[in-house]
């Protein structure tokens, strides 16, 4: 049997210099190939006029099926040669010149330098650039062969940021519609970001004389990547509808994207594959940075993109780090777009972290808190003079201001929350409001049962009964009704971090300098529709550990005007917000959007052709997720990284994330309506707006989110109904089924046996599945991402860590006296240190910033949608398009 690689090289053989690493072919095959190679195959426009037609015909030979012996190869080639000879007799008037312009947004040097110097729009200099292109007809010829024409560029013209390369094809009038282009980048060391390939002068009877391929894809030099780069036209096809002329290319492209699962990935690769989270630890540099592998039966977790780096010396199950400044691999097209690289958010973040953290380390004691609240204010007013390296202002112009003496000043923008009302963060009203409209609107839930009871093992975690009593609740709501009535009338709500956090408490406390509790916070829904916090319960489980042997402890706190109780209430709220901050970053943000999305993206690229309509529907929502995730593994959620060093869960942060994935995460509950119903914040009501009756009418996250959800679902419904008019076409779509199967059994393989996974067998199921993925990657993520600096930029409003325990938890006499006399000072000691606060504020400032090339829903029509009149009409008429 021939090597499958021969299928790759057959379209290339006309160039006379196949890449060095192509596999050797057998003696018989070699003879056949040489007979073809002896022809003059240069078909760029300058040579095409003198080249015999046999040349271009011979170059397009490919094997329609895997052949079994050399004789068959000979037969195939002989048939092609016969057709070529026949073609030579055809009058030249049967062909027309087709002009081709390839627009490359930017050429990226291998040293990653920007071409900013060449971005003058009046700069039209000529640049060298050899690209070889082959156009493929959607039809096969009468012998069942692919119909192709080829041409090459020699140089291009720079037009500001873009470069345009031109060539011309000598195309038979009977060529039919162009369905694909393959391109070889024959530059020595330049990767190109191909924006469009525009054809003009196409012969009749094609429907149009011009055609544009919207590529927006990188193509590496052949010296770095031998895979044939294939670009399909904007027309979408289900697998069964693939034109005969494109079938081989459709499969070949997917094979290339899947790779063979071996080797270390290079920057130029496009391969999408899976691996467990085994690259967070760094045991070679420090045994304390060893961490468990996430993914597998012990610590279930979604899969991440495989990079193929080797194992560490200390632990063969842990993947070693790349260099400090080296990026982790993501497929080439998942990297940030290459325009003005110095403005990339992720590059900024990377540079900022590398530059700023050593400065913070040099100027602050790791445990030093802020001495006064006014010292916190000064971060926004006067700022902090820092040792200058002259670069920070360039990376972080919003945060770091250059000074006149070559020094730089770290001065943060005042978050809007503080601009509006400097003291609002202290109020119960704002505390409650932020559970509905703040940075994490995803935890508040209806209390459905009374009394509150833990489901944890009492032998390990203490008494299951909550310390919040019926009497306490009734007193706090002024005795207007019994607690049973409050529950029945759906007016009692809760932030419940009891059962999830309690098992982590002892481990976290053993780390030192960070304290944790299990917590419950109750809210009463008042007649005016707002929430009123009425009680907080903080719980410490028992520990029989030699290092920390303690009895169980519970504290219950309520609002008060009595000074000591009022301060304790403030401390209790601070602790709950710390719990909410950890849950927000690790679960609502990282796990439920970034992390769970990666398998959907990997599987889509491995199983859905770029010409598949569902790939094209989802693709806009996948942008940059994989690269941001790779960065997060390197700097944010890694051992000793920013999350571990600045948030309360410390080194248990990611294990906690795995526990929540295992116990709580369900795909079918990630749709906004399902999530609201699960938390008791809504119930189905066909007569209500959006089909849901909200438990709290003024719930901005739900009020706005449901409008967006409905728009997404309406658009997806139109789209799915157009491509799948009958349910059986969904079941028969091999690529779609392979994608979903791989999502469930590989990417989310630790949950593959769950019964709640939707089955893609009806339009309804497919619409719900796709809408959920789109929602998670758009509305859900935006809600928990873009408000980060607004709410947490002033960190007392949203501290990431509690560094001291509650003042009344087993205090010494001196400790309690200190609290009574200087409660404000005690709170500053509890809040994040200067170093922790500065690092988190800087990171959140960058992460909250909208990047220049961000796309907004309904803002941009995908090229493939525009080419379909039906879809174009529906998308432009849909709020969610
Ligand atoms: Fe994010």
From TrEMBL:
It holds the Pfam family Lipoxygenase. Keywords: Dioxygenase, Fatty acid biosynthesis, Fatty acid metabolism, Iron, Lipid biosynthesis, Lipid metabolism, Metal-binding, Oxidoreductase, Oxylipin biosynthesis. Residues 284-320 are annotated as: Disordered. Residues 236-881 form the Lipoxygenase domain. The keyword Metal-binding applies. Its cofactor is Fe cation. Residues 102-233 form the PLAT domain. GO terms for molecular function: metal ion binding; oxidoreductase activity, acting on single donors with incorporation of molecular oxygen, incorporation of two atoms of oxygen. PROSITE patterns: LIPOXYGENASE_1 (PS00711), LIPOXYGENASE_3 (PS51393), PLAT (PS50095). It comes from the Eukaryota. InterPro entries: LipOase, LipOase_C, LipOase_C_sf, LipOase_Fe_BS, LipOase_plant, Lipoxygenase_dom_3, PLAT/LH2_dom, PLAT/LH2_dom_sf. GO terms for biological process: fatty acid biosynthetic process; lipid oxidation; oxylipin biosynthetic process. SUPFAM superfamilies: Lipase/lipooxygenase domain (PLAT/LH2 domain) (SSF49723), Lipoxigenase (SSF48484). Belongs to the lipoxygenase family. This is Lipoxygenase. It comes from Stephania japonica.
């Amino acid at each position: 049997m021939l090597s499958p690689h021969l299928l790759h090289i057959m379209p290339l053989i006309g160039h006379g210099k196949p890449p060095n690493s192509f596999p050797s072919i057998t003696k018989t095959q070699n003879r056949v190939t040489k007979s073809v190679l002896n022809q003059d195959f240069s078909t760029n426009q300058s040579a095409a006029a003198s080249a015999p037609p046999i040349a271009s015909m011979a170059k397009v030979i490919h094997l329609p099926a895997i052949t079994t012996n050399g004789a068959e190869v000979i037969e195939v080639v002989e048939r092609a040669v016969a057709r070529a000879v026949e073609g030579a007799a055809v009058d030249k008037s049967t062909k027309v010149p087709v002009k081709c312009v390839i627009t490359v947004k930017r050429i990226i040097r291998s040293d990653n330098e920007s071409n900013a110097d060449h971005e003058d729009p009046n700069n039209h200099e000529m640049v060298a650039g050899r690209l070889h292109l082959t156009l493929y007809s959607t039809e096969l010829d009468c012998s069942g062969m692919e119909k192709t024409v080829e041409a090459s560029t020699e140089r291009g013209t720079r037009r500001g940021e873009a470069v345009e390369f031109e060539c011309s094809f000598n195309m038979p009038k009977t060529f039919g519609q162009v369905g694909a282009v393959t391109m070889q980048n024959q530059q020595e060391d330049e990767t190109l970001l191909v924006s469009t390939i525009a054809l003009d002068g196409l012969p009749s009877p094609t429907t149009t004389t011009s055609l544009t391929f919207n590529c927006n894809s990188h193509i590496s030099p052949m010296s770095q990547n031998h895979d044939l780069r294939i670009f399909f036209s904007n027309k979408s096809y289900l697998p069964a509808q693939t034109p005969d002329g494109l079938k081989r290319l459709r499969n070949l492209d997917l094979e290339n994207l899947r790779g063979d699962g071996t080797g270390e990935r290079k920057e130029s690769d496009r391969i999408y594959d899976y691996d467990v989270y085994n690259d967070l630890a760094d045991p070679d540099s420090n045994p304390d940075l060893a961490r468990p592998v996430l993914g597998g039966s012990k610590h279930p977790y979604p899969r991440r993109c495989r990079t193929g780096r080797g194992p560490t010396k200390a632990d063969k199950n842990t993947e070693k780090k790349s260099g400090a400044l080296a990026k982790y691999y993501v497929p080439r097209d998942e990297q940030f777009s290459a325009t003005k690289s110095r403005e990339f958010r992720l590059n900024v973040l990377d540079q900022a972290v590398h530059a700023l953290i050593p400065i913070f380390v040099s100027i602050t004691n790791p445990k030093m808190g802020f001495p006064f609240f006014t010292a916190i204010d000064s971060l926004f007013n006067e700022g902090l003079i820092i040792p200058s390296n002259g670069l920070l202002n360039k990376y972080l112009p919003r945060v770091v201001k250059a000074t006149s003496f070559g020094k730089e000043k770290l001065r943060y923008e005042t978050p809007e929350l503080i601009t509006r009302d400097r003291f609002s963060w202290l109020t119960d009203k704002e505390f409650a409001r932020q559970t509905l409209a703040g940075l994490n609107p995803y935890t508040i839930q209806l209390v459905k049962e009374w009394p509150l009871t833990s489901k944890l093992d009492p032998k390990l975690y203490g008494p299951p009964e909550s310390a919040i009593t019926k009497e306490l609740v009734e007193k706090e709501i002024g005795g207007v009704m019994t607690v049973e009535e409050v529950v029945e009338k759906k007016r009692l709500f809760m932030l419940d971090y009891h059962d999830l956090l309690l098992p982590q408490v002892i481990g976290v406390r053993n780390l030192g300098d960070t304290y944790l509790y299990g917590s419950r916070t109750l809210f009463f829904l008042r007649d005016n529709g707002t929430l009123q916090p009425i009680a907080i319960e903080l719980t410490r489980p028992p520990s029989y550990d030699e290092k920390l042997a303690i009895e169980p402890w519970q504290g219950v706190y309520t609002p008060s005007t009595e000074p000591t109780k009022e301060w304790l209430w403030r401390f209790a709220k601070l602790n709950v917000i710390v719990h909410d901050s950890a849950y927000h970053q690790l679960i609502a943000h990282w796990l439920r959007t970034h992390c769970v999305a990666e398998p959907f993206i990997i599987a889509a690229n491995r199983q859905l052709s770029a010409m598949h309509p569902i790939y094209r529907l989802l693709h806009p929502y996948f942008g940059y997720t994989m690269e941001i995730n790779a960065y997060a593994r390197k700097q944010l959620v890694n051992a000793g990284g920013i999350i571990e060093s600045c948030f309360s869960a410390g080194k248990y942060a990611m294990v906690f994330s795995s526990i929540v994935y295992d116990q709580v995460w369900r795909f079918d509950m990630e749709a906004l309506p399902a999530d609201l119903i699960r938390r008791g914040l809504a119930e189905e009501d066909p007569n209500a707006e959006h089909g849901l009756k909200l438990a709290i009418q003024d719930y901005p996250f739900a009020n706005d989110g449901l409008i967006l959800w409905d728009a997404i679902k309406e658009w997806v419904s139109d789209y799915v109904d157009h491509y799948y008019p009958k349910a059986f076409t969904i079941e028969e779509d091999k690529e779609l089924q392979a994608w979903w199967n791989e999502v469930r059994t590989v990417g989310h393989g630790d949950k593959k046996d769950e019964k709640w996974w939707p089955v893609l067998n009806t339009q309804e199921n497919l619409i719900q599945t796709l809408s959920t993925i789109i929602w998670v990657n758009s509305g859900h993520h935006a809600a928990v991402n873009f408000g980060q600096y607004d709410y947490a930029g002033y960190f007392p409003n949203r501290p990431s860590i509690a560094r001291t325990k509650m003042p009344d938890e087993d205090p010494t006499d001196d400790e309690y006296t200190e609290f009574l006399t200087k409660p404000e000072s005690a709170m500053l000691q509890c809040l994040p240190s200067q170093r922790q606060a500065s690092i988190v504020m800087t990171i959140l400032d960058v992460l909250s910033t909208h990047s220049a090339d961000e796309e907004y829903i309904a803002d941009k029509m995908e090229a493939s949608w525009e080419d379909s009149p039906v879809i174009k009409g529906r998308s432009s008429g849909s709020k969610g398009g």
